């Protein structure tokens, strides 16, 4: 498995992963294409390949000292294989390189698996956003420090 920056050739499969994983909250293929092409200057897309096939992606934004994981999605047939961890590790590395000292993300409060995944990787709850998702579900805001600053130990 390899993680690499997404290219325009990955647009359709990334959009399909969005739809399969996020349903009504999925981003459109047009928005995905714009992000991959660099039309959103703070956004970067990474894809994970297995045997040459894209089976996961992550989307992150870095602005000054704050990074935000906006998306992480894995094809259902490749879940529980370490792929999400590899994508997350790549996002963390990119965020640090971009100068971020913390990584933020939102998770649906009813997504126990994702909450456990992030907790096991050092994320802590810092807030909640009521009625954040289209269906009215609350988002749990999580944060992980990435080094000095933002409450990190010396």
From TrEMBL:
GO terms for molecular function: protein-N-terminal-alanine acetyltransferase activity. Keywords: Acyltransferase, Cytoplasm, Ribonucleoprotein, Ribosomal protein, Transferase. It is found in: Cytoplasm. Its EC number is 2.3.1.266. It is an enzyme of class 2 (transferase). It catalyses: N-terminal L-alanyl-[ribosomal protein bS18] + acetyl-CoA = N-terminal N(alpha)-acetyl-L-alanyl-[ribosomal protein bS18] + CoA + H(+). The keyword Iron does not apply. Its main location: cytoplasm. GO terms for cellular component: cytoplasm; ribosome. Residues 1-147 form the N-acetyltransferase domain. Belongs to the acetyltransferase family. RimI subfamily. Acetylates the N-terminal alanine of ribosomal protein bS18. PANTHER family: AMINOALKYLPHOSPHONATE N-ACETYLTRANSFERASE-RELATED-RELATED. This is [Ribosomal protein bS18]-alanine N-acetyltransferase.
């Amino acid at each position: 498995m390899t993680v690499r920056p997404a290219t325009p050739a990955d647009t359709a499969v990334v959009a399909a992963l969005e739809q399969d994983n996020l349903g009504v909250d999925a981003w459109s293929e047009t928005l995905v294409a714009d992000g991959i092409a660099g039309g959103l200057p703070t956004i970067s897309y990474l894809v994970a390949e297995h045997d040459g096939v894209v089976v996961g992606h992550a989307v992150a934004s870095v602005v000054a000292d704050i990074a935000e994981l906006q998306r992480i999605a894995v094809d259902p047939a490749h879940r529980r294989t370490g792929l999400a961890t590899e994508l997350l590790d790549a996002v963390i590395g990119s965020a640090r390189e971009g100068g971020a000292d913390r990584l933020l993300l939102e998770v649906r409060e009813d997504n126990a698996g994702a909450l456990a995944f992030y907790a096991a990787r050092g994320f802590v709850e810092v807030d909640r956003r009521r009625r954040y998702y289209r269906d009215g579900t609350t988002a749990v805001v999580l944060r992980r420090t990435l080094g000095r600053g933002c409450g990190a130990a010396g």
